[in-house]
Amino acid sequence: MSAEFQITVSKQQGRVPVTVLHLQGDVIDANSYGQLEAQVQAVYEAGARNVLLDLTKVKYISSAGLRALHSIFLLLRGDTLAESDQVMKKGLMDGTFKSPHLKLLNPSPTVMETLRTMGFDMFLEVHRNLKDAVASF
Fold first, then answer.
1. Which has the closest alpha carbon to 55: 125, 119, 118, 1?
2. Looking at residue 88, which CATH number applies to its domain?
3. pLDDT tens series, the chain, 137 aa
4. Which residues contact 130 (CB under 8 A, 6 or more apart)?
5. Is the pTM of this model over 0.85?
6. Is there a contact between 62 and 111 (Cβ–Cβ < 8 Å)?
């Protein structure tokens, strides 16, 4: 199924530049998660620090896809790890922390349920339209 999985990249300008990865394929799984991680690594190396994953066309995310989201979260989490970890730990404890650098756009109900079940909605903002998502960075 990985042959059917494609990622296109666009740039949006809000208060800060936002790199949008438009994921096209039914699933993020063991066959496609590596492609997603590699693409985010490439845009990060090119200077992207704020990433929006457009999940509009993704119907399912497996544990491998969740692993990819976690890896991307860690990559984008901040400049100094000690400072970032302190803020993150406090925010996770009181439920206020959301990643300022990684956000999600338009996950399907199935994907959203998986994110909720695994607790990813606790630290990743989810938006329903591109304009609001870009403005949130």
1. 125
2. 3.30.750.24
3. 344 899 999 999 999 999 999 999 999 999 999 999 999 999 999 999 999 999 999 999 999 999 999 999 999 986 555 555 665 566 555 556 789 999 999 999 999 999 999 999 988 999 999 999 999 99
4. 12, 20, 52, 54, 105
5. yes
6. no
Q: For residue 5, give the amino acid letter.
A: F
User: Rounded CA gap, 56 and 78, in Å?
Assistant: 26
CA distances from 45 to 32, 75, 94 (A): 20, 11, 33
- DSSP H or E stretch at residue 56: strand 51-57
Number of domains in the chain: 1
Q: Is 123 left (phi over 0), alpha (psi -120 to 50) or beta?
A: alpha
Q: Give residue 131's domain range.
A: 2-135
CA distances, 10 to each of 28, 37, 50, 82 (Å): 20, 17, 12, 31
Type of residue at 108 = S
